[in-house]
Amino acid sequence: MAADKTQKLKARVARGFIDRNAAEIDATRAMVETIRQVYELYGFEPVETPFVEYTDALGKFLPDQDRPNEGVFSLQDDDEQWLSLRYDLTAPLARYVAENFETLPKPYRSYRVGYVFRNEKPGPGRFRQFMQFDADTVGAASVAADAEICMMAADTMERLGIPRGSYVVKVNNRKVLDGVLEAIGLGGEANAGRRLNVLRAIDKLDKFGPEGVRLLLGAGRLDESGAFTKGAELDEAAIATVLTYVDTAGTGGADTIEALRRLVAGQATGLAGVEELAEIDRLAKAAGYGEDRIRIEPSVVRGLEYYTGPVYEVELGFEVKDEGGRPVRFGSVGGGGRYDGLVARFRGEPTPATGFSVGVSRLLDALTVLGRVKTEGARGPVVVCVMDRERLAEYQAMAGELRAAGIRAEVYLGGSGMKAQLKYADRRQAPIAIIQGSDEAARGEVQLKDLDLGARMAQEIADNTQWREARVAQRVVPRHDLVNAVRQMLVSIGVV
Question: Within a 10 A sphere around the Cβ of 103, how many other Cβ atoms?
C-alpha cells in the first residue's frame, strides 16, 4: 500500500529564525569567551535572567493591554497573566536588580549573554531571534561609569582583532537632543510620540542619508518597494534645526562640544547634557583613548525610548563587497546608554544605570570578513573505523583512550563499509581516521590515515594502482603507542 504523501510534513524553519551549524556555534563560543574576559577584567560579574518575563516588566515602549503581541512574542499562563519572551537583556536586568536590591552591592556591575526575541517583520540581516552580550553598571550616577563603558567597548573590539582605525565608539547625550526638541516645541509628555518619531528618523541617518532623514522628519518617506513610512510632521524650521544639530561635528571633541553649547544655549537640559559629554571626552582622553577610538558624535541617538543621558554606538568603518560587487559597510555592531528610569519603574525612586550591548551575530559576521574567525570547516573528531564488527569493544577502547588524553574521538556507528566510512570521516572534517583490521590486530598494530594529506595527494594521483601502492597518507604504529602517535599527527596537521 502506497504511503499517503498528503500526511508528509514540510521541513522548514520558522520565518525570521535560522539554524546554526557546529562551525558557527564554535566561532560564536570563541568570540563570546573573548568578550567575557574583557568584561571580567573591568570587574563585571555574570548573572542570568529567564527568557520569559511578565509583559508589563519589559517597559513602556512595549505592548499595551490591547496589543500584547505588538513587538514581542507573548502568551497567557494559566493565571491569565501575560508573559513575553524578552525583547532585550536590559529590561530583565532592571527587574532583577529591583527584586534583589537590598542584597546586591551598589554600584552593581554585571554582564549577561543570551538570545532575545523580536516579533517584527524579518528581512535581510534582520532576525526575530538573535544573541546579545550586555554589561551594565547600576547605582552609579557619575558619567565616569558611561566613560568606562565606552573604554571597555573599545578594548573589546581590539581584543577581538578589530584593528584601531577600523572601529570607533561614537558618543552622544539624549539630554542634548531633548534640549533641541524643547527648543522646537516638542517638550513635555504630550509630545512623547512625536519625539520618538524624531529619534527614529535621526537613527536612520547612516541608512538613508540626510535627505532620507529630512523626509522622515517631515511628511514621511516612500521607499523603493513602494512602502510608505509616516514622518514626524515637523515644519521646515524645526526640520532645519534638527538637521543642524545632527550635522554639528567639528574637527575634534572640543569643537563639537562648543558647537553644541551654542546650539542649546538657554536650554538647561541641553546644556547639562553637553557638560556630561565634555566630561566623558576628558576622562577618555586622560585614560589614553583618543578620538580615533572614542568620539563625540551628535548623530547617535539610539532608537529605544528609555535612554535618559549619554548614548553610544560602536561603528565599524571598514568596507566590504557584497555578492554583486557593491560596497557594504557593517555599521553599528553594538551600543547602549544611560537608562536611569528603568529600575525606578519597580522601586519608585531614581536608580541610575548605564550599559552596553554587543550584537553578537552581526559582530561575528564582521570578524569573519576580517578573517579573524572561520565559520566553515570546523574540525571534527578523530574517527575510529569499524573493520570487524566482532571487535567493536576494542574500537570503543581506542576511542576511550583518546578521550582520556583530551583528544576528541568517536567510533563509526553506521552500517556501511570502509569506503563509506572514510567518506563519512571526510564530511565530519575529521583530521585522522584510525583503521585496524584482523591482520593489524594480530600484529599489534593500527593504521592512522591523515585525511588532510590524503586529500591533497589525491589531487596528484590519477592511477588507482599507484593510489593503492602509495598507501596515501597512512602510517602504521604499534597499538600501545596509539595515543602518542595520534597526538603527534594532530600537531603536525596543526589541529592542536
Answer: 6
Strands 220-222 and 409-411, how do they pair? unpaired
Instruction: Count Cβ atoms below 10 Å from residue 73 Cβ, excluding itself.
Output: 17
Residue that has been written with the C-alpha cell 563560543 in this structure: 29
- Rounded-to-integer distance, Cα 245 and Cα 438, Å: 81
> Between 451-458 and 418-427, two packed helices, what is the crossing angle to 10 degrees?
100
Is 196 a residue whose pLDDT tops 50?
yes
Architecture of domain 382-493: 3-Layer(aba) Sandwich (3.40)
Q: Which helix (H) or strand (E) holds 302?
A: none
* pTM of the predicted structure, to 2 decimals: 0.83
Report H helices in 301-349. 344-347
- Looking at the chain, the whole-number percentage of residues with pLDDT higher than 90 is 54
Question: What's the CA gap between 446 and 193, in Å, rounded?
Answer: 73
Q: Give the CA diameter of the chain.
A: 94
User: Would you kindly state where each structural domain of the chain is located, as residue ranges?
Assistant: 22-191+200-210+242-369, 382-493
For the CA atoms of the chain, what is the radius of gyration? 29
Q: What does the pLDDT average to over 192-210?
A: 82
Pick the CATH number of 22-191+200-210+242-369 from 3.40.50.720, 3.30.9.10, 3.30.930.10, 3.40.50.620: 3.30.930.10
DSSP structural state of residue 47: -
Q: Distance between CA 379 and CA 430 in Å, rounded? A: 6
Give dist(CA 223, CA 231) in Å, integer: 13
DSSP letters of 122-156? -BTTB-SEEEEEEEEEES--STHHHHHHHHHHHHH
